[in-house]
# Entry
Amino acid sequence: MSEAFDVAALCDAIVEGGNAGANPGANPGADLGNGPTAHPGARQRRAISKAITLLESTRSEHRLLADTLLNTLLPRAGNAFRLGISGVPGVGKSTFIEALGLFLIAQGHRVAVLTVDPSSSLSGGSILGDKTRMEMLSVHPSAYIRPSPSSGNLGGVAEKTRESMMVFEAAGYDVVIVETVGVGQSETAVSSMTDMFVLMQLPNAGDELQAIKRGVMELADLVVVNKADLDADAATRAQSQILSSLRLFGMHGHPDRAHHDRSIWQPTVLQLSALKAIGMKPSVVAAASEPNVAGGLAAFWTAVQTFRDLQTRNGQLAARRTQQTQAWMWERIESGLKSRFRADPAVQAALPAALEAVLAGRLAASVAARQLLELTMIPIKLIE
# Structure
């Protein structure tokens, strides 16, 4: 039996504790030094959970309800700072996010975290275990952590990550963090939905050649060498190699990253140890002088603030959001066309024979695909 969703009640509960303005994207993360102090109530937290469940639902009867929810929340969304965190498995993303989240909450921010866990290619299930690693952050009243399965989506994020971010922004969370699944060099989707893309690396993770391979590295706005306390020499060496790679990317194909232009953000590399920052008083973390231990966390947030200030003044942050909105629309169009194609009666009728011909070697796969595509005429209904 389908769960009942009262969209109007959900929207009212979500925005009751929110402080977002009515101009979406006008000033994302306007004051990253001092955030809002309002705490979400239990009613709002339940509404957020139910809203994201509705957005992630694959039931056809939920789609129109989800669309209504998004359009209702849209005027309240857009004022949070969106931070994407990516890195290889075991780099310490969850530990770092917990340390950062507690540090930001101590400064008055409200922090939302969207974690994405890989789904099994055999069973389709997902453990959703990242939340269990954030023991202190997950129970804090000023934080909300939502784990989601990747469900076969490529790029390290879930299908409805963007929609979930809008719900958090409408609820008044001023810092939204997206943690991807453990990724390699080609999973870059998170960079197309956040204001700042942070890549986490390990000491001794590779040589100079590994550092300059194209892919996720060239999209990073900031690189963090975590677990720097384990081997200080290796961390310093990795920092130097990655910084050289980022400068090389800046000279080839990125004229906007010209190093003589101080009005443009230049990607940089920091060292820290997130584990050592866990449990420390925020005042101690902020005052720590060792760049690769607790002080690395304060230096990280200072870099984020600098990035936001520069990108806001030069218009790059607003331009980035505009491009992301366009990319989001086209992504949904492509996904919808694929779903409609699979559900088309003519395609379903012809598919078994076409597949049999392909497997028997009588028909090329590309020819079969073209013939199936020609069978469907998808009606388009414009939104008024």
